[in-house]
Amino acid sequence: MLAFVIDADALPDTAAVARALRCHPQDRMRLLWLHGDADAETRALSDGPFHSVDEPSQRIVDCAARLETANGGRAPRSQDEVLLALLWSHPGLHLVPVRDWHAQQLYRYPLLDALLEEDTPEFWLRGVRQRRLLEGVELVDRVRLCPGCRQGHLSFVDVCPECDSLDIRTEPGLHCFACGHVGPQRLFQDGGMLRCPNCSAVLRHIGEDYDRPLENHVCGSCQHMFMEGRVLARCMGCGQAHDPDELEPMGIYRYRLSEAGRLLARTGELRDLYGAFDEINHVAPEHFEFFVDWSLKLRQRHDEIGFGLILLHLNGMARVIDALGHGRGVALVDTFAERVKALVRSTDLMTRTGDDRIWLFLPQTTASGVDVLAKRLGELLEDVVSQVDVGRLGNVYHESSMGMAEAEDAAAVMARLVSRSQ
Asked: CB–CB of 235/202 below 8 Å?
């Protein structure tokens, strides 16, 4: 058996069939295509629709060849290696979340449920993200979790801002001008007339003796009147109550292998390909953003202040390693880093975000100076691979402070350059 095609129009439970195939030790690494209209879980377990595959036989051959070389040519020894090898040998296969109200965090990943035997999917996913073996491709949703038990089943209720009682109701109120007392209208009623229960003043004319306040909610426990109740999020799992601001936000992403994940799946070894760049005036990403923010604020007061920002996106490393092998690929990156080091000044700063994005901050640099350095770096990206014929190593994106708006901050400028690189 080389591959499977599930006929979703003919089978009553396609998800169960797809799950059984992905759980089977001998068949879980096979290509799994769909015919017909399948549900979300079946699509998350499959390689996509069969009608979109141009050359199925060639895809099968390519997948088998990748599986033979995965993990350095040896059989996977752990569930981590199984999943990484599967994602690497099936280029179009991603970790796709499926909405499920039974799940603790409201979403689950069917592929992880089928392949992982020991760890819980949430624990495994958090671990591989921390190791940067996966990267988010698309933000599907954002949920709020209980900070106590990390469950997403929450009940939002309005309570009294004074005593936190649930017994609140909407009721008209009155405001006595004589003493300033505010209370429910029913407490002002006295024998067919309105009398303040606090100072006993008779209220005859609205606008002269009294008016209706904005506070129209009354607590049945403490009789406090208020405009808006306090919102509490009650966890349906552990029972704790939290202010909404205390909830833990979590993005739900569709994931694919990062460059580090592809390297580990292919070679069975993980080495920081870009570690050589950390020797070039390196600062932590948060410090890098601080310097850019500080320079943006300084430019608002001093027109002579100018700087540049350059992004090196080395998105060609996967092709280089596939063509040259791991050892030669690492040597090529080291050579490129040495040549970059010769171009930057001692006052320039460098950092990394992700595995393949290298940032340069160029203080006191004119717009033309930024253009010149970006051009030289672009030529270097082509020259360093000119002898091995594997295409470009990456691309260069740059911007001068002259083109940045005064209201922008470092995060906005960097996000704009990243969006241009995608």
From this structure: no
Q: Please, which contacts does 200-209 make with residues 24 or more away whose CB atoms are closer than 8 Å?
A: 201/176, 203/174, 203/176, 208/177, 209/176, 209/177, 209/178
pTM for the whole thing? 0.61
Q: What is the pLDDT of residues 281-332, one digit of tens each?
A: 888 888 999 998 888 888 878 877 888 999 998 877 767 766 766 667 777 7
Give yes or no for a contact between 176 and 199, defined as CB atoms under 8 angstroms apart.
yes
Residues in the chain: 422
Give CA separation, 271 vs 132, 200, 260, 263, 397, in Å: 12, 82, 8, 8, 26
Q: How far apart are CA 103 and CA 84, in angstroms?
A: 24
